[in-house]
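User: Is it possible to get a 3D structure for a protein together with its bound compound? The compound here is 4AD. I've pasted both below.
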Amino acid sequence: MTPVVYVQDIARYAGQDVTIRGWLRNKRSSGKLHFLIVRDGTGDLQAVVSKAVVGEESFAQSATLTQESSILLTGTVKQDARAQGGFELDVKHLESVHIAEPFPIQPKEHSVGFLMEHRHLWLRSSRQHAVLRIRHEIVRACRNFFDDRGFLLVDTPIFTPNACEGTTTLFQTDYFDEKAYLTQSGQLYSEATAAAFGKVYCFGPTFRAEKSKTRRHLMEFWMVEPEVAFAELSDMMNLAEEFLSFIVERVLENRRNELAVLERDITKLEQVKAPFPRVPYTDAVALLQKKGNPIQFGDDFGGDEETLLSKEFDRPAIVHLYPAPIKAFYMQNDPQQPDLALCMDVLAPEGYGEIIGGGQRIHEYEKLLARIQEHKLPEEAFQWYLDLRRYGSVPHAGFGMGIERAVAWICGLDHVRETIAFPRMLYKLYP
Ligand code: 4AD
Ligand code: MG
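Assistant: Yes, that's possible. Here is the predicted structure of the complex:
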């Protein structure tokens, strides 16, 4: 029996007969030869079909193969320096599994709108393969980073009774006789698990009904969120710095080919090393004003400000100590400057902007209760969260990184829509 192998392992079978199962990406012919470019999900391989070898009937059959037809090919693996990947397949036997109808995505330029409508098919392109492989590498690096440092993965719920990041971006749903919201962040629950296990992380989908149509916003995105007991803002700055350096290093180590497909300037990624600049919000405002931006102290940064700021640095910048009123209810105040919150946003360079948000949490019961009331949040829904401040409360801190924004930055993409297999965007739910 000839072994059934994947294209990524082809080098191991040089000189041997194997079977490849895949889809036809492209085809060209020259009289008595057909050159088939076959994709099997792990890579592309050129297969040479010769009339003299396969016979009249199979040769005629291979001429009928359309783009994306599925096929089984058996033949000899031949080393060939001219072939993509250094190998090709001299086909001895060919079998079509399904002849594809005319494929909507042709090897030519299509509009983004058209490609998004056909996202389920667009995923077969080399470019999408590169992006999603890098995404996987980033996800794996996130898990390895925390796992290797003794963080416990504790998953948090998706249906929640509470708002974490403001009440204006909640997706509401029926939960039997109650109302529930899709989670905006696992943080509040991770605060409970951090008090149980010391240091934890959660990693899952999060949802924001943000009426924003920008290159940075999705309605559904994945977030990895560490939370640490007995930790302060400065600990999170150090952790985020180490974390991002680790992720970028992993991608540079393992996904060079994919970065090349995306024509990513990797010299920019090679600069992502500690120490990262630490910029107090006040300095960031001064910097923006110097650049001619009309921002005033107390204003939050929008897309333009983030873009401008993040172009100022050659590596991620940790902007910290924002005015408390523009930040979430749970944020601890700076004891020296009580108007400021002990929080940080990490802005990716090259204009990418915020990829991480986090900081230190209020750990005093009375203070937190007052904040919940100030923000007019329903007290009943937060009783369990207040409980955490009644039983062995300690200073604690954490952060969250949006996976899609990190992928967009590391891949050098101009929009988050290509960073997830099926993006959920404003008014866009299909496919
Ligand atoms: O800054 P955010 O809102 O912070 C939190 O949710 C905290 N509770 C996290 C924590 O401290 N555990 O969101 C964190 C990150 C952002 O920096 C961004 O990368 C990503 O989540 N993010 C989005 N990504 C894509 N689309 C959106 N609509 C996003 N909103 C936030
Ligand atoms: Mg934020």
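The domain at 7-98 is CATH 2.40.50.140 (OB fold (Dihydrolipoamide Acetyltransferase, E2P)). The radius of gyration is 26 Å.
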